[in-house]
Amino acid sequence: MIPAGGVTPPAAAARSVAVGIVLPLAAGAACVLGFAPFYLWSVPIVAIALLLHAWTRSLTPRQAALSGLAFGLGYFLAGASWVYVSLHDFGSMPAPLAAAATFLFCAFLALFPAAAGWIASRLGATPARRALLAAAAMTLTEWVRGWIFTGFPWLNFGTSQVPAGPLAGLAPYVGAYGVSLAVCLAAASALLALSPVVPRRERAFAGLGFVLLMAAGLSGPALEWTRPAGEAVTIGVLQGNVPQRIKWQEDVRTGTLQDYRRMIFETDARIVVTPETALPAFLDQLPADYLQSLRDHARAAGKDILLGTVEREFTGDSFRYYNSLVRIGGEPGAASYRKRHLVPFGEFIPPGFPWILAVLRIPMSDFDRGAANQPPLVAAGTPFAVAICYEDLFGEEMIEQLPAARVLVNVSNDAWFGESFAADQHLQASQMRALESGRWMVRATNTGASAVIDDRGRVLKRLPPFVAGTLIEPVQPRDGATPYVRCGNAPAIAIALVLLLAAARGRRARPL
Q: How many alpha carbons lie under 13 Å from residue 157 in its C-beta half-sphere?
């Protein structure tokens, strides 16, 4: 910052650090309050506005990038600290190494808002242009984060608006990234409307833009893009609450199998859904009488059972392993869904990292990917779009099974993250998928959050975390397709690119 008259350079430097580093760092950490379990949807808008304030005062793109990096560090260290829990508490990684790995991972994620700040400052010559550039760049870099190196779209800004934020109504039209763009534009509009250094006319336009954004979001639900398809089907969701540390131990396995069989038998529902890898054994190695007892029960009770398990195939010289959801019942068609978007270091080891196996003790870390275009899994005559674990973070992948599928189902095991925010944040991502697609979502997890979500993204019923239990709820299948189901992320990304180019047009880039 350039010191004003009478302000000493040390004082100006301290103020520069406060505005450029400390304020974005605190804003990033506070931004997490917009997500579950807090659901304070307005906080991310305010937090991003504070970041944009720092960017409008940056003298160089390098300063803006540092502000973005500080924001990202606060954001991800506060919101994704559960990575440490997974690595240390359940992966047996030594505490110093787990802490270092978590920090480096969050620092990598912080590079994306840093890049957005660099772009906005480099190409934006006025505060108004820089704020609009920042909104577009934040969205585009978030989108890149969602697919680069297999993608990590956790803590997507748009997801913070589900289910009650006024901008959530845009999700069926432009998806999570479109809502992210709306969040960033709302932050930019609010900042410009309140800024005394912005010309009065631009402030008026910014205020109007803020009002129009909110009005568009609030009016979004007025159009109903999907419709009920037949009668509701009763679904039972099982939550076994098997501790992750002992789940795969031989002396625990028999008890787990018996507990799940008992829960399945006792559940009075047309469809019963178990969590990811609920049965800690290969499907073909389960006792023959165990699987047969499930088949006999399904036939006698008129049930379909969606069973989380591990499949394997012998390919001639080795086995291929799949994280699967298998249907037991009388429906025709595909009998299983195999997970296709695997977790790096958790379900497969990327090339160049074989040494990680000597540090992490994670069972079943060498899965194979399921086929790219798998049909919906049909149970009780209802086609389900299936996502295993964090596959439901990828909206563009979930809609590939739509509009054929009438209900969404996610099976997961968030026990890996202990009593952190991860399970609630994951639940909110499922709420976004339901809202984007106009479909109900059923979630079965090992320790929580097991829930039923309606087509408006509202949690209708959920089980308490870290208890064994069964949730039974009628679920309404739905037909039809939202604009997002038909077009995916393309419209949101196109709008962000157009804004980026329009705000940068005709302006000479600033020096580094």
A: 34
Which residue spans within 345-381 are E strands per DSSP?
377-379
Whether residues 240 and 218 fall in one domain: no
Q: What is the C-alpha separation between 18 and 488, in angstroms, rounded?
A: 40
Q: Where do the DSSP E strands lie in 97-172?
A: none
pLDDT in tens, 369-428: 999 889 999 999 999 999 999 999 999 999 999 999 999 999 999 888 888 999 999 999
Domain membership of residue 297 (yes or no) is yes
User: Is the CB of residue 130 less than 8 Å from the CB of residue 480?
Assistant: no
Its pTM surpasses 0.70: yes
Q: Assign 3-state DSSP to the chain and report helix, strand, coil percentages, each to 5.
A: 50, 15, 30
DSSP 129-186: HHHHHHHHHHHHHHHHHTTGGG---TT-GGGGGTTTSGGGGGHHHHHHHHHHHHHHHH
Residue 38 lies in domain = 11-224+489-504
> Which residues contact residue 15 at a Cβ distance below 8 angstroms, ignoring those fewer than 6 apart?
1
Is there a single domain that holds both residue 109 and residue 203?
A: yes
Mark whether 172 and 49 lie in a shared domain.
Answer: yes
Q: Total structural domains in the chain?
A: 2
**Active-site positions?**
276, 339, 389
Token pair for residue 15? 């103020």
